[in-house]
Task: structure prediction
Amino acid sequence: MATATSTATSVAAALLLSLLLARARGDDDYSGFVYAGCSQGRYASGTQYASDVDSVLTSVANSAPYSPYANFTSPTSNSVVGVYQCRSDLPASVCTGCVRSAISRLSSLCAWATGGAVQLRACFVRYGNDTFLGKQDTAVLFKKCGGSPGDAGGAAMRDSALGALVAAAAPAGGGYRAGGSGGVQAMSQCVGDLGAKACSDCVSAAAGQLKAGCGYATAGEVYLGKCYARFWGNGGGGFSSGAAGDAYGSGHRVSGNRFVLAVAGGFFTSLAYIFVLM
Result:
């Protein structure tokens, strides 16, 4: 009996360790799904439009190892546009893997759709034949707040950290901003087709959403049409630091425990969006 009990205990410990390791790997999943959307319009296989979509998305995938942002337009009259944006503080290898994962998601979720977009933890990819490139969009697509309970002092530090994002000088490239106040850190990322003022306006709108909607939560994030922002406490509460390596710099990752999903607004009017809480 002692041997059986010992064996059972060892198996249970091994299973627990496996679960903890799996959770840890999940925390580092920069390709984790946030949201996706697909247009109601469709195109047929073998058409010029299908060729243009393939060409644009291939260009997106091929560009990711070299830059955190790029956009491409097909050379035909269909004018299919593709754009991607990685978190520009992360290594090129992370950007490459995330973008390729996003394209794979688009292929499965938006098969034959004339337009589609997907946001993963570390990158955003969109294609279509509508005029979205370079246009501001502050519609709220995905928002969550949580972590361990906080207090008024923590909320004040959060507001200050988010304010630092808004006040930051326009980045020389990549649209990434980071700030902090006391025990709270914050970051934001704009899509690279926005100009400096439009990026600042988008970050300001995102910060306002988090300040108004997250109460005393110690972590939160909100994704708008052309930017997103996050905050987290240094002591945990849903976010923790993660090494990022070289190339695009270093940043943070999201563990996402005990969050409440809140979705508001439309997005791009031409797309019918799928919102999924993973």
